[in-house]
Design brief:
The protein is an all-alpha fold. 57% of the residues lie in helices and 3% in strands. It has 25 helices and 6 strands. Strands 1-2 form a two-stranded antiparallel sheet. The radius of gyration is 24 Å and the shape is globular. 51% of the residues are buried. Zinc ion binds next to helix 15.
Length: 599
């Protein structure tokens, strides 16, 4: 059995045209030579893995998962070998650059395993099976009609029928209980792997990606959440009141958490799709971007071209032809793909792609910018050595495209012909509310997903309490509750992509903070002087140059240096968000004056 697995691994690697790398790295007692050789070896393996993962995400089959698992096994075994080999330099006087690389070597596996081939193989097989289950999920109703992503996501966005919403919400989550056993096992193996690498547990390893002590990072995230809490609570209060008016207090009680299926999103993370139910009567946002996208007849590819044009307007080179040839923009009719959007760096400095099931909606338009932000970052830091490619911290990578999409203002849309003219700025509450429904609503959510996971990895939350813990956190931080009792026979977190895919999530929380800091700095660089939320730095070469300087640094410097180079400050701080939304916050407080807020 074991031999078969090894043969599969070798076959996969040879099929991808990669000759196994020589065992050089571990021979050197010179830390600089060791780390460079390690990078070269890993670079080859990561490229092979990218091709295998691309196939597995674009053609979900038994065999594609086998190939991806084989590639993962090779990478995992090699990183463990190198990380262990690096231990011989502990306590030695090495250059700061090499010390940084040695630290990154230990963090190179998002999901580590102990140094045991059987466990490495089990982890690879089970984690690939989990992503496959997520990507191929279909829910079939009583009439035998089957739905998948993105149709189910679209129903959650557009339906106002609470029964239909509940059915689709529950139907989506039928994917998850069968994942539970594998998920628990994957977490168990990964946790043991993190401990072998010297971390307290997997959560602590993930928190070690931020150039500070993992506990200090947790405290920093909590501080940042505290900064935006008053704004979030005001938003939750207003949305709850308006949904209660619309659906009735039987369905949305005036007090307590908002039922999770009524917020216009499968996970209640962005609330933009309930904008029409909560918008101010006196002030419209002036336009309906979704309607305009459809009316303009923009195909998926055109929407991506529009996103690319923003980046080229800043002075970045256009994406290469291969991006357009190899990316996936729409859901294929005849096969299962992982529809959750992603951006890919295939590792050769040329080949960048996105994979998305694009629909003509404002949310997707924003996600396109998000993904392109990853691609432009990946290309900007391609001259860094392999271990220094990546965001200054994981939040930086997630924040670039989002900072760009804050520039999708009415003025910008008018400029590119997506709306007829720029509405005047005498009453922008509707506009600000839309932005808050999208960006502020998601903040506690982006914070709590890893609170939940950290609880599992630290042992605080036993496997049999995972679902109850999930809903406790959702209620505590989001003021959102389950539409029906969801005990531990369910596994609701499993129906969120990043949980089966084992992608850390605090990165998105940090990105929500950073994107407003980046945006404000880029508006300054562009010489903009009006109200912040009306700023678009489209076509500002000054803004582009500033941005590029930071992107080119990749992860070569501690993130405060990268932040300082763009914004002039070394601190993450929510004051840019609070300033941006100040007029909305005042308006929400007026609306909520006679309401009892909190949950
Ligand atoms: O997963 C994503 C991106 C890919 S990195 C589409 N995002 C998070 C999510 O969808 O849950 C972007 C916003 C938060
Ligand atoms: Zn992303």
């Amino acid at each position: 059995m074991k031999i078969r697995v090894v043969l599969v691994s070798l076959a996969a690697v040879l099929a991808l045209g990669l000759t196994p790398a020589p065992q050089e790295a571990n021979r050197s007692d010179d830390p600089d030579i060791f780390v460079e050789a390690a990078e070269a070896e890993l670079d080859g393996l990561f490229r092979a893995q990218a091709n295998a993962d691309w196939i597995a995400a674009n053609f979900i089959t038994y065999d594609s998962q086998k190939i991806a698992a084989a590639a993962q096994e090779l990478v995992t075994a090699k990183v463990i070998e190198l990380a262990k080999g690096a231990a011989r330099f502990d306590g030695m006087d090495v250059s700061p650059r090499t010390a940084r690389k040695l630290a990154f070597l230990k963090l190179a596996l998002p999901v580590p395993a102990p140094d045991d081939p059987a466990l490495i193989a089990e982890l690879a097989a089970k984690s690939n099976a989990l992503t496959g289950t997520y990507g191929s999920h279909r829910y079939c109703n009583e009439d035998g009609e089957c739905l998948a992503e993105p149709e189910m996501v679209n129903i959650m966005a557009t339906s106002r029928d609470p029964d239909e919403l509940l059915e689709v919400w529950k139907g989506w989550r039928t994917m998850a209980p069968p994942m539970r056993e594998d998920y628990v096992r994957v977490m168990e193996i990964a946790n043991a792997g993190a401990k072998e690498l010297g971390f307290d547990d997997l959560g602590s390893m993930w928190r070690s990606n931020y150039d500070m002590d993992p506990d200090a990072f947790a405290a920093e995230a909590e501080r940042l959440l505290g900064q935006i809490q008053p704004l979030y609570e005001a938003l939750q209060c207003h949305v709850r009141a308006k949904l209660s008016e619309f659906y009735g207090s039987q369905i949305v009680p005036e007090q307590g958490p908002i039922p999770a299926h009524l917020l216009g999103n499968m996970w209640a993370q962005s609330w933009l799709n309930v904008s029409d139910l909560v918008a101010p009567e006196t002030s419209a946002d002036g336009f309906d971007l979704g309607a305009n996208l459809r009316a303009a007849g923009l195909e998926a590819r055109d929407m991506v071209r529009t996103g690319e044009a923003f980046f080229t307007s800043l002075g970045f080179d256009p994406l290469p032809d291969t991006f357009w040839e190899r990316s996936l923009f729409t859901k294929p009719r005849d096969r299962d793909v992982v529809c959750h959007a992603s951006a890919w760096d295939m590792g050769d400095g040329e080949d960048y792609r996105i994979k998305m099931c694009i629909e003509p909606t404002p949310e997707m338009f924003e996600t396109i910018h998000h993904e392109l932000g990853h691609n432009f970052y990946q290309r900007a830091d391609r001259d860094q050595p392999p271990l220094f490619r990546g965001g200054a911290n994981p939040g930086f990578h997630e924040a670039i495209g989002d900072a760009i999409s804050l520039s999708i203002t009415p003025g910008y849309l008018a400029q590119i012909g997506l709306i007829e003219s720029e509405p005047d700025d005498s009453d922008d509450i509707g506009l600000l509310l839309d932005m808050a429904l999208d960006r502020v609503a998601a903040m506690p959510w982006t914070y709590l997903v890893d609170q939940w996971r950290w609880g599992i990895s630290s042992g605080k939350t036993p496997p049999e309490a995972m679902n109850v813990s999930w809903w406790e956190l959702r209620e505590k931080y989001q003021g959102v509750g389950p539409p029906e009792v969801r005990g531990d026979e369910f596994f609701d977190p499993g129906a969120k992509y990043h949980v089966p895919a084992m992608v850390s999530y605090t990165r998105y929380f940090i990105a929500r903070i950073l994107q407003f800091q980046f945006y404000r700095a880029l508006c300054d660089a562009a010489g903009y002087a009006g109200p912040l939320h009306r700023c678009s730095f489209f076509s500002s070469k000054e803004a582009g140059a500033r941005l590029n300087t930071m992107l080119e640094m990749g992860a070569s410097q501690p993130w405060p240096d990268a932040l300082e180079s763009l914004t002039g400050t070394r601190e993450m701080d929510a004051s840019a968000i609070n300033d941006y939304f100040a007029p909305l916050h005042a308006w929400l407080n007026e609306q909520n004056a006679s309401r009892q807020c909190g949950w």
